[in-house]
Amino acid sequence: MESRAMVLEEGKERTTNQVKGLPITLLRVLILFVTICAVFSVISIYTLKHFGIESVVTTSVMKSSFQPCRGEQDRLLDLEDWIRPNSNPIHNMSDKELLWRASFGSRIKDYPFKRVPKVAFMFLTKGPLPLAPLWERFFKGNERLYSIYVHSLPSFQPQFSRSSVFYNRQIPSKVAEWGRMSMCDAERRLLANALLDIYNEQFVLLSESCIPLYNFSFVYNYIMESKHSFMSVFDDPGPYGRGRYRNEMAPLVNITQWRKGSQWFEVNRKIATSIVEDTRYYPIFEKYCRPACYVDEHYFPTMLSIEAGKALANRSLTWVDWSRGGAHPASFGKSDIREEFIVRIRSRHHCKYMKGTPQFVFFLQENFLLVL
Ligand SMILES: *[C@@H]1O[C@H](CO)[C@@H](O)[C@H](O)[C@H]1NC(C)=O
Ligand SMILES: *[C@@H]1O[C@H](CO)[C@@H](O)[C@H](O)[C@H]1NC(C)=O
Ligand SMILES: *[C@@H]1O[C@H](CO)[C@@H](O)[C@H](O)[C@H]1NC(C)=O
Ligand SMILES: *[C@@H]1O[C@H](CO)[C@@H](O)[C@H](O)[C@H]1NC(C)=O
């Protein structure tokens, strides 16, 4: 019995000894750990304080040494700096950067300053502007009501004199090919540059062979007073309309939504912004609308009739004579262009809409060089 109890006691003893032995080692490790932690935290607190003080010292030193520049930095917060139009449209932004920047807009309708809205005249050209003298006369005396942007082949070196309205109005340009996405890119580039000027309210796309059919004040009032943007939009069921649609464009664009229109548009600031900020339709049109689908005739008309149909007049302000057939508009020579010719175009009135007002205010033809 006794021996058994001894054994039991011993067993107990041993087990308690084992149990006791474990915490002692653990305790030692724990104490070591806590000590290490304490040492580390003391060190880190000290370092933090030390460096913290040091960085505060550095910033205050930096601040005081940059003091003279602060006035200039603060000027960026003046309203004047946000709204001042750029006198020279040259910049170093890539297309991606430019479109992003141009997509900024104010969300409050009323401007907190006196804003006389301007019309941006955007010339999409190959190079020279043969009709520049005519446009100079058109713009004369209306300096606060318009701005001009010219997109030409990058190789073209403009030679405008300092007194010309076209002087320093060239925007950074790239090659634009007829019927290809690069043409729409050029148009978006023009819109984006023009959007950077907060005074621009209306945006007209023109080419070097366009002429105004009316004087400036007439054109200005016509555009400003219209509730609609002048984008030509129609549904052509034939091979040159719906025939260019590709099923891959669904479901974003249905064949019933597919539209065609003339390239020459006039849009307000809101529509201009929606063209510039588009990232939904662009990839689809770029991928599936390639010759013989001429993307500049379909991309904006289709996208805008889906997104902003009610805001469109569905017609262009620029008269192009397609009556002679073919892929290019009719050209007129010196003998054609007489007063009665202009009067005839001017007398085209739109029946349904804006009764009594002319349908067109610009006229485009190819080879206008012949005329002057
Ligand atoms: C634009 O970039 C060019 C070269 O990349 C440089 O020479 C020029 O100074 C830059 N202009 C501005 C306004 O930053
Ligand atoms: C502009 O043209 C309109 C219509 O043709 C005319 O009534 C107006 O007097 C002209 N304004 C100027 C300043 O020439
Ligand atoms: C798209 O077309 C299909 C027929 O092809 C039609 O059932 C559908 O309603 C159309 N959707 C829209 C939004 O027009
Ligand atoms: C242009 O067409 C759209 C439909 O796509 C329509 O909502 C709009 O009212 C039309 N504009 C005018 C001025 O009739």
Automatic annotation (TrEMBL):
Keyword Membrane part of the UniProt annotation: yes
Keywords annotated in UniProt: Glycoprotein, Glycosyltransferase, Membrane, Transferase, Transmembrane, Transmembrane helix
GO cellular component: membrane
Compartments in which it is found: Membrane
Entry's transmembrane regions: 21-46
Pfam families to which the protein is assigned, alphabetical: Branch
Bilayer topology term: Single-pass type II membrane protein
One MF term in the entry's GO annotations: glycosyltransferase activity
Protein name: Core-2/I-branching beta-1,6-N-acetylglucosaminyltransferase family protein
